[in-house]
Every structure is written in structure tokens, then in C-alpha cells.
């Protein structure tokens, strides 16, 4: 679920001041969250861990690409960040399993 605060943060980043696209932006953000979780693993959008913040950044970047009709370039341009986050999230899961 995309909160109003999360949407507001994205709109501020994108310099979008109107509300006419809010439903579309929420939809795009939810698509990006699903994509990043599928590629990298679970994270908390409101979390304060480094991995949570990096995942949020990737969600915002992918949504920016979606919004600008250029999503086909996202994975190539952010492949190292996607791979790195996926490895770090997998390591977090392994660390939690060992406790």
C-alpha cells in the first residue's frame, strides 16, 4: 500500500506539485515496489536500515523511468545497484536465519 507520505516524497523528488496524477503515481510506485522485491528480496519502505533506504531509492528511480516512458532502460542503468541490493538483502536473511 502506497501511503500519502510516500507519494508526497516521490512527488517532491520529481517536482510534481499537482494532484491530478496521484492515482497513476501510486500505481507506478506499486509496480516498482513489486519489481524491486522480486529482483532483490523483501525490504521495508519505511525502514531505516541501509538496505531499506537503497531499496526505496531504486523504487523511486524505477518509478521515474516508468513515469517518463523509459522503463526499458532502468535495469541496464541500475544493474549493479540491483545486484548489490539483492546480495545484501540475501545476506540479511541468512544472518537472521542463523540467530
Task: Set down the secondary structure blueprint.
Layout: H1 4-14, H2 22-40, H3 50-67, H4 74-98
Helix pairs in contact: 2-3, 3-4
Estimated radius of gyration: 14 Å
Largest beta-sheet characterization: none
Tally of contiguous helical segments: 4
User: What best-fitting shape do the alpha-carbon axes yield?
Assistant: globular
* Global mean pLDDT: 94
Q: What is the N-to-C succession of helices and strands?
A: HHHH
Strand-residue fraction? under 5%
Decide which structural class fits the backbone.
mainly alpha
Fraction of residues in helix: over 70%
Tags for this model:
99 residues; mainly alpha
Describe it.
- With 99 residues, this protein is mainly alpha-helical.
- The chain has 4 helices and no strands.
- It has helices spanning 4-14, 22-40, 50-67, 74-98.
- Helix 3 packs antiparallel against helix 4.
- The protein is globular.
- The mean pLDDT is 94.
Provide a concise account of the structure shown.
The chain has 99 residues and is mainly alpha-helical. The protein is built from 4 helices and no strands.
Amino acid at each position: 500500500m502506497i501511503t500519502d507520505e510516500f507519494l508526497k516524497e516521490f512527488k517532491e523528488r520529481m517536482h510534481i506539485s499537482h494532484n491530478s496524477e496521484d492515482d497513476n503515481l501510486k500505481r507506478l510506485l506499486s509496480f516498482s515496489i513489486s519489481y524491486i522485491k522480486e529482483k532483490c528480496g523483501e525490504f521495508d519502505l519505511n525502514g531505516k536500515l541501509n538496505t531499506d533506504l537503497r531499496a526505496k531509492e531504486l523504487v523511486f528511480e524505477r518509478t521515474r523511468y516508468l513515469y517518463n516512458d523509459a522503463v526499458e532502460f532502468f535495469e541496464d542503468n541500475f544493474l549493479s545497484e540491483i545486484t548489490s541490493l539483492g546480495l545484501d538483502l540475501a545476506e540479511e536473511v541468512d544472518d537472521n536465519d542463523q540467530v
